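Quick one:
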Amino acid sequence: MGSPATEPSREDREGPQHQVTVSSFYMGKYEVTQREWYDVMGTSVRQQRDKADKPWSIYDEGNNYPMYYVNWFEAVEYCNKRSQREGLTPAYTISGSGDNRTVTWNRNAAGYRLPTEAEWEYACRAGTTTAYNTGASISNDTGWYYANSGYTTHPVGQKPANRWGLHDMHGNVWEWCWDWYGSYSSGAQTDPTGASSGPFRVLRGGSWSNSAESVRSALRDSSYPDYRSFYIGFRLVRP
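Output:
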């Protein structure tokens, strides 16, 4: 996990590179779409935009476009509501309201959840050790990023999948992870879940508005959990 010191454009927060073991899990082939979101939550991307502190433009909408303008708390709520619709035990317990909300994760639950940062990188890499899951350099087949996106989102699944059948792991929209953002440990870890607390939750994958360097497999970012943006969405996992 993380990038080697020799990787071009590497940032300090991507290291130290360290050994991680993750337990088996299933991951959605695609980022959660606008249709999937509407079916569960009943709001459109435009309605989500209007909740933002500084609403920007709509960067394409449609059933198969990734959902965005979703904050971390709303992504967690979606996981629980979709689990309940499908008769699964929800993974999360949410208490409080507003900035005082707390979320706990029942790791034994069968319901949908957000990936940990370690799970996300493991799935993105799909067995590779290069900067991208397509190789050491990016190509038009790697994903949607600034140079090829036309400065907009795109329907999920238009770029080739990685070796494990996952689409849009590089670019299109950033994806929320479970973890609080924090520095890496240098030691080997099994099923790490990030820092114990903090102000920011982890984002992975980069987006259509980012440079090629910012959609690398190891690149990390973060944001306040109540933040919404036109370039942030999410993807589901299950045990």
